[in-house]
Amino acid sequence: MRFSLNIPNFGDFADVRTVARVAAAAEEAGWDGLFVWDHVVHEKYHRRSFADPWMLLTAAALATSRIRLGTMVTPVARRRPQQLARQVATLDRLSGGRVVLGVGLGGPIEDEYGSFGESTDPRVLAERLDEGLDLVTRFWSGEEVTHQGRHFTAREVALLPTPVQRPRVPVWVAGFWPRRAPMRRAARWDGAVPLFTSADHGQAPAAAEYRELVEYVNAQRGERRGEPFEFVVGGVSPADPARARDLLGPLRDAGATWWDERHLIDDEVDKLAPIMRRVEQGPPRL
What we know:
It is a single chain. With 286 residues, the chain is of the alpha/beta class. The chain has nine helices and ten strands. It has helices at residues 16-29, 53-62, 81-95, 109-112, 122-140, 180-187, 207-221, 241-254, 272-281; strands spanning 2-7, 33-36, 68-75, 99-104, 145-148, 153-157, 171-177, 191-196, 230-235, 258-261. The strands form two sheets. It has an eight-stranded parallel β-barrel with strand order 1-2-3-4-7-8-9-10, surrounded by six helices. It has a two-stranded antiparallel ribbon with strand order 5-6. α1 runs parallel beside α9. It is globular. The mean pLDDT is 96.
């Protein structure tokens, strides 16, 4: 099991220098990854300061040399695929091939989509996610792309240079379990980032429920089951090593390959001080 940190792209973390500090401290403390939220307003009534996640990750890449970096998650439905493909490829080259693209529908839908006159129909957003993601990965090939779809168009374009990672930057797909459709989507890509209706952000699910999800995704992978695939689980890990092993050990045994350290969504979720204290403590030890 590998260990990552999860931070928002607003509040204290809207400062690129702050995120660079967090990334450098995380690498020094032995963490394996840093993942950043991708929101434009989140819950807009809070009126927080926000930063573009790719600018934050660029600062993190320049401050580190080892840890994985990515979004968790990017709502592909509100992105132009050509722009997203270029941003990810640029960061992958800058970081020496350390990028992960986490994707999902995103939310809150009314705030993040409806506020800008975009569709709030989850079916339409799912269509845009699937079509856009397929197009992004075709752009990463460096080959000429022509596409006329329901939502996106490309006419005889080749986007160069390609990402460092081949055949592509790993794509991890998020969604709420026990909804099956997002996890069927995840099975077509390189990793699953499930959230759970039974557990809030920052709370780990029961190991038995996580095992059920892993078994379902693996069954959907068919002939690809033997290929590398990542299963992410997240929450707040106990400071006490024995309690941390009691929590994480069963999840690892159920199939989790990454533990994503997440703060509870409360008044401190976008504050640097508590996150930096956890960063400097280092990852859990199993």
